[in-house]
Amino acid sequence: MTPSTEMNSDTTSFAIRSSTYSKTSATLQPAMSVSPIRTERLDLVPLEPDAIRHLMTGRRKAAERLLGLTVPHEFPTTEDVAGFLAIQLRRMEESPDRREWMARLMVARPATIIGHCGFHGPPDVIGRAEVGYTVFAPFRGQGFAKEAARALVEWAFAQGQREVYASVSPGNAPSLAVVRRVGFKQVGTQDDEIDGLEFVFAIERPPQQPPQQP
Question: Domains of the chain by range and CATH?
């Protein structure tokens, strides 16, 4: 989930792409129509489309009033109009009723935005459930990326997905460690039009355990 090309961070790829994958083995809904995903320390809050519009036009304070949160300077704004924010807004406009499969703010309780995370898009639109995440520099090394990624995977499994994917640049050692700790296994590589060569990882939903006999 990468709004920039920064490496060696708690970041996975997160962009609309037309990639080559080689296998080795309308009206927007209100923000509250999509529930946050809660973890031990985080609320993964759906990214508000009107907040994106404010940020893309340099109205940070308006976005903060709408979200009820302070938007840190690390969050992409007008400098990234053609990148992360524009991609997210376009997805929301194309599939307004599928926003649960799009970007979320990573909020450390009570109310600190420490990054963003979510899915590349609805699985039936992009072909698979794929997670991404970015933790801002001041908050890295505290396990937030792993906590968010694990929660997204578990949420996707609860929606009936049998596999969840992640793509990581080969030189991004911290993020490679995150996906492996969550339980992802490398299944291939792909050539991303933005990020270049990436390792593709997948994790399968564990089989349901039969109920124990009394």
Answer: 20-24+33-204 (3.40.630.30)
